[in-house]
Design a protein that fits this description.
Elements (H helix, E strand, L loop, with lengths): L11 H10 L18 E6 L1 H13 L6 H6 L15 H4 L2 H4 L52 H22 L7 H25 L1 H7 L2 H4 L23 H6 L11 E2 L9 E2 L42 E3 L23 H11 L5 H7 L11 E2 L11 E2 L13 H10 L13 H17 L4 H4 L17 H8 L6
Antiparallel strand pairs: 1-4, 2-3, 5-6
Helix pairs in contact: 1-11, 2-6, 2-7, 6-7, 6-16, 7-8, 7-14
């Protein structure tokens, strides 16, 4: 996106020290849930952390997109074009990956029943292989969607939503085809990305700046999209400023501990050596770990405290929870700190500094005196060290990933302040998302920009991620 900008120059030692400073010290998690955690972002539910991970896996899926293969079998060189097409769910379709589908070539297969969610007695695990020894790996389109228990069950939800959509569409057209159902599922997913996930992460105003027709109510051809920085010649691409910096904001949103459902006596840790309390995936986890999605996405009216509250994501700031500073072996074998990995990758990709990008975008540059490292909490903010305390080389030369997190952190006033991405990070993420949708000739924004979700799945005139999840639970034939 910013090809003419010079790369920021940092040493491995500087980035390693910064990465260490960005990882919070280990803390004992609160024993109860009767108080609001000061590190929580009151504007973003915890489920959006993992919806963001799911979207990332969709955009960066394998080189053989089933959608493109169906429509352009000769364009092999373009198979890596990123799209919101759910290839991480559908794989290469029922013809090429029949082991993921029922014999009817329509329904997708699921695994064993799971218990623990009183709101959904039909919860299932992913279909898994059955080796004589070792972990039972998921049989899915993208193995990354089994890397933790939450993303694993989010994958299940999309499979069940597909199966639910078959029933809805067959009620009016018994001859509906798999490709028709697939398109409708994709469009509902794209709607959630554009109308729920994106406004939640970047703010409604930013989305409307890039897509003004959403504010004016006019046709998209009268109120035209405003893509100032994301341009392509033949087809959209995945900018490194997005994939290596801006879209890694979610790493700061990860909580150290989650409640999966209201029947389990305890919450579970994202990483732990004890597999019975760790959410690390690539295995068959306990059958009582059925997720109650109302604990991850607010269905409306959820309490602020107690075991049945909707958990919040942690704030978008320059602090990562301690477990992310020592990733387990299945995730990372050499550089164990996620912060250090992100910073090193940014340098290897030759990313410009955050300040250089802000100037290019004609946005105010954050002063060095306001670039700090640590949690956006009332307790920690006064003593957070400056970025330049790590090295004077960071003066007006902040790594782009760090700068985008620090930019969001400028919104902090008190613990209850909601925090979204700021002007630089929010604009990059929004333009790439919108550009990918506009550049995909099969998306609803390209084929039918006035399209809205089916009335059968709408909830009070809206369709959000929680509504998709609630529809998935109506797939009682799972």
């Amino acid at each position: 996106m910013f090809r003419t900008l010079p790369e920021a120059e940092h040493t491995d030692e500087e980035l390693t020290e910064l990465g260490e400073a960005m990882v919070s010290e280990a803390e004992n998690p609160p024993t109860g849930e009767d108080k609001i955690d000061e590190e929580e972002n009151q504007g973003i539910d915890a489920g959006y952390t993992y919806l963001g991970q799911f979207i990332d896996h969709d955009l960066t899926f394998d080189p053989a997109s089933s959608l493109q293969k169906q429509n352009d079998p000769n364009a092999l060189e373009d198979f890596r074009t990123p799209r919101f097409d759910l290839d991480n769910v559908y794989g290469r379709g029922p013809d090429d990956t029949p082991f993921m589908y029922d014999d009817d070539g329509m329904h997708m297969l699921l695994g064993r029943p799971l218990t623990g969610n009183p709101n959904d007695l039909n919860t299932r695990d992913l279909a898994r292989n059955n080796p004589f020894a070792g972990d039972k790996r998921a049989i899915i389109g993208d193995p990354r969607n089994d890397e933790n228990v939450i993303i694993s069950q989010l994958q299940v939800a999309f499979i069940r939503f597909h199966n639910r959509m078959i029933k809805i569409m067959q009620s009016t057209d018994p001859q509906v085809t798999f490709s028709q159902v697939q398109q409708m599922v994709r469009w509902h997913y794209q709607w959630v990305v554009l109308h729920d996930f994106l406004p939640t992460i970047v703010g409604k105003k930013m989305v409307e700046k890039v897509l003004p027709h959403l504010k004016t109510g006019k046709s998209i051809y009268d109120s035209k999209p405003d893509l100032d920085f994301y341009h392509w010649k033949e087809s959209p691409f995945m900018p490194v400023e997005f994939s290596v910096a801006a879209y890694r904001f979610g790493h700061s949103m990860v909580r150290p501990i989650y409640r999966l459902n209201t029947t389990l006596p305890n919450r579970q840790f994202i990483f732990d050596t004890n597999v019975f309390i760790s959410l690390v995936g690539f295995r068959e986890f306990p059958s009582t770990w059925a997720l109650d999605w109302d604990l991850f996405f607010n269905p409306g009216g959820a309490p602020n405290t107690g075991i049945d509250r909707t958990q919040k994501a942690y704030k978008i700031d320059t602090a990562l929870v301690n477990p992310l500073g020592n990733l387990p072996d299945p995730v990372a074998k050499v550089i164990k700190s996620l912060a250090a990995r992100n910073l090193m990758r940014g340098r290897r990709m030759g990313l410009p500094s955050g300040q250089a990008v802000a100037r290019y975008m004609h946005l105010p540059v954050i002063a060095d005196a306001d670039l700090k490292i640590g949690k956006a909490t009332e307790e920690d903010s006064p003593t957070n060290k400056l970025l330049t305390d790590i090295s004077s080389n960071f003066a007006d030369n902040a790594p782009l990933w760090y700068y985008i997190l620090a930019e969001a952190q400028q919104q902090f006033k008190k613990d209850s302040t909601p925090i979204t991405l700021g002007p630089v990070g929010g604009r990059i993420v929004t333009e790439v998302f919108v550009g990918l949708l506009l550049g995909d000739k099969h998306s609803f924004l390209s084929l039918n920009p006035a399209w809205t979700p089916l009335p059968e799945v709408m909830n009070g005139g809206e369709f959000k991620m929680i509504d998709l999840l609630h529809q998935a639970t109506k797939d009682t034939d799972a």
